[in-house]
Amino acid sequence: MAERILQTGSLSELTRFLKQCRCRLLDRMHESQQRVDLMDYLIRKTEKQSMK
């Protein structure tokens, strides 16, 4: 997709496309980080339970 946009010569359209891709990647990264945080929480919680 980026190559096609670049071939048209529209740098502003390419920049917009790349920014959108970056935003989607960041969204996925944040979702993954939330899952990791939840796993860390569950691990700590189960470790505390096992120490009782």
In short:
Helix content is 92%, strand content 0%. The chain is built from two helices and no strands.
State the main characteristics:
about 50 residues, mainly alpha, 2 helices, single chain
| Structural class label | mainly alpha
Number of strands: 0
Low-confidence stretches: none
Rg estimate, integer Å: 20 Å
The major pleated sheet works out as: none
Task: Describe the protein.
This protein has 52 residues and is an all-alpha fold. It has a domain at 24-52. It is 92% helix and 0% strand. It contains two helices and no strands. The chain has helices at residues 2-8, 11-51. The longest helix has 41 residues, at 11-51. The chain starts with a helix and ends with a helix.
Helix and strand arrangement:
Layout (H helix, E strand, L loop, with lengths): L1 H7 L2 H41 L1
